[in-house]
Design brief:
The complex is a heterodimer of chains A (396) and B (141).
Chain A lengths: L2 E5 L11 E7 L2 E8 L7 H5 L7 H6 L8 H14 L5 H29 L3 H22 L8 E2 L2 E2 L8 H23 L2 H7 L7 H6 L4 H6 L6 H4 L20 H28 L15 E9 L2 E9 L5 E7 L1 H5 L3 H4 L5 H9 L25 H18 L3
Antiparallel strand pairs in A: 1-2, 2-3, 4-5, 6-7, 7-8
Helix pairs in contact in A: 4-5, 4-11, 5-6, 6-11
Chain B lengths: L1 H12 L3 E8 L2 E6 L4 H11 L3 E9 L3 E10 L4 E10 L4 E3 L8 H12 L2 E3 L23
Parallel strand pairs in B: 2-5, 6-7
Antiparallel strand pairs in B: 1-2, 3-4, 4-5
Classes of the chains: A alpha+beta (396), B alpha/beta (141).
Chain lengths: 396, 141
């Protein structure tokens, strides 16, 4: 009889419902079965019932962490269909938002990874510093998450020049923090002992499973959509693509840490270019989406996001295919986790940075009177006040 | 550079090409016959080192269409292989024999559109619950 250890569908270590059945022999994992679908919301179908301009709002809600990745890939797809050229300012702003998101997403993963291996100091620290990035995103867009910045042919909000020094300052302050994490992870013998050689995904398997993003780059597969199929401002800035070869959890962590330096480099270059562009030119008017098909990609924090859009000339897409990076990456756990001990399974499964979608609504009720204290309007007011305070604190 | 790869694909596919359409210098759509899918996928994946990105299943009025998107990461080209399947009995060889990455997406297209992938090792529900009524496919028009 096979012994099975279930992880999920609801498990304290997972923020997202997924079901991993670990088949074990003693302490060793001999096979793994992955069941997904607990979070299926039919977004592809829903998207075909929305107007082209409504879709970015819908797809932004696919993920609560890399929320801008999907609208980014979607607008790329529609613009590929249209074949339009964007104003330079749009390109820079898009890349800045994309890189800020990569930074906060990698900080979030670093924290979770620390938490999974019982290194809670890393968890607390990295989430503390992540707040600064979320603050900047809130000052730019009005939201910590779900920035609502993307539209077909442009962006919805400009980055005014008063804000640029603030973003630059945030980047300056972040560099020593990343240095600190680099030291805390790469120079710590305990982390080496815990993560090296654990959850190895070989280059061969990485190619067979067609994994993407940091998961692929840690296994020696040198791919990055930003460099290979440049969009937004990525063809105009200089950056490196860190690639490592061992494919273990340690390399996956190191790849992400090295990528954060590159993100800061990209943001700085984009800000410099932004200073030279006149303010306000942030969109191309698109009145009509003709018949045709388009493919758009974006290198999200977890890897390539792939969107395919087909139009029949009406105001809604007839087909909108969405492929998130975790769709390719999670499947590779089938080889990465097998042969490991059970205690390594949690960090191995988490090392591909599976995407957590966790947006909840809150109702606060007075225990004695039973009255709702925070209403929908009240919450919005609270959120707007916080943004105003942040803007003041950040100099405007 | 971009053109060369597409020319090479064109040359290697030879008379397997039913329709050939270059959308722009990084996007190319090639229609092939369903029975040639394994051979064409092998040419792209094994001989030319393309990466399989994903597949899109579409219910068109008269037929079902599957687009297999392959990415050539050295130059950022996407070649999409288009196959048209009979709506009454949609069937095609499974690409899992060429690369593992096709496993999930074929399960998804099977449950959403009812396409039977011959030779798939584990054709069961991926996103929908196991007790989903048989013969009901959410993405069929």
């Amino acid at each position: 009889m096979k012994k099975i250890i279930p992880i999920g569908p609801y498990h304290p270590l997972q923020e997202e419902p997924e079901f991993f059945k670990l088949f074990v022999d003693g302490e060793t994992v001999v096979d793994i079965e992955i069941e997904i679908g607990y979070n299926h919301r039919g977004i592809e179908q829903l998207s075909t019932t929305k107007h082209y301009d409504q879709v970015p709002f819908l797809v932004e809600r696919i993920c609560g962490i890399c929320s801008t990745s999907h609208p980014f890939a979607y607008v790329n797809a529609v613009e590929d269909l249209l074949g339009i050229e964007l104003p330079p300012r749009v390109k820079y702003i898009r890349s800045i938002i994309g890189e800020l998101e990569r930074l906060h997403s990698h900080f979030l993963w670093l924290g979770l990874a620390g938490h999974f291996i019982g290194y809670n100091t890393v968890w607390m620290w990295s989430w503390k510093y992540r707040e600064n990035i979320c603050d900047i995103l809130e000052v730019i867009s009005g939201n910590r998450q779900h920035y609502g910045m993307f539209k077909i042919g442009g962006v919805r909000k400009d980055i005014p020049k008063e804000l640029i020094p603030q973003i630059e300052k945030m980047c300056d302050n972040l560099l020593p923090v990343i240095d600190m994490f680099k030291g805390a992870i790469m120079d710590d013998p305990v982390i080496h002992a815990r993560l090296k050689g654990v959850g190895v995904l070989t280059k061969e398997d990485a190619i067979k499973y067609c994994v993407v993003g940091p998961t692929a780059r840690a296994s020696g597969v040198d791919i990055d959509v930003r460099r290979d199929d440049p969009y937004a401002a990525y063809s105009e800035v200089e950056f490196n693509v860190p690639v490592l070869s061992n494919g273990d959890v340690f390399d996956k962590a190191v790849v992400r840490i090295l990528e954060m330096y590159e993100s800061i480099k990209i943001i700085r270059q984009c800000l410099d270019k932004l200073k030279k562009e006149p303010e306000g030119n942030i969109e191309v008017k698109v009145d009509f989406i003709p018949k045709g098909e388009g493919i758009g990609r974006h290198e999200a924090p977890r890897g390539e996001v792939f969107h395919y859009v087909r139009s029949d000339g009406s105001n809604r897409p007839v087909r909108h295919k969405i492929r998130a990076p975790s769709y390719m990456n999670i499947a590779s756990n089938k080889v990465a986790a097998v042969g490991q001990t059970i205690s390594d399974a949690a960090i191995t499964l988490a090392a591909v940075d599976p995407c957590y979608c966790c947006t909840e609504r809150t109702v606060v009720i007075d225990k004695n009177s039973g009255e709702q204290i925070l209403t929908w309007d009240g919450l919005i007011k609270l959120s707007q006040n916080k943004t105003c305070k942040l803007k003041e604190a950040y100099g405007k | 550079m971009g053109k060369n790869i597409i020319e090479e694909v064109k040359e290697k596919f030879g008379d397997k090409i039913v329709d050939f359409f270059i959308k722009n210098n990084r996007r190319c759509y090639i229609e092939i016959k369903p029975q040639d899918i394994i051979e064409c996928a092998k040419i792209l994946f094994e001989e030319m080192n393309f990466r399989f990105a994903t597949a899109t299943g579409i219910d068109c009025e008269k037929h079902l269409e599957i687009l297999y998107h392959f990415s050539y990461d050295k130059t950022g080209i996407i070649v999409s292989l288009r196959v048209k399947l009979d709506k009454k009995n949609p069937e095609i060889e499974s690409l899992t024999q060429v690369f593992t990455a096709a496993e999930w997406i074929e399960r998804e297209i099977w449950e959403m559109l009812g396409v039977n992938f011959k030779g798939h090792p584990n054709l069961k529900h991926l996103l929908l619950p196991d007790d989903w009524p048989e013969g009901k496919h959410p993405l069929r028009e």
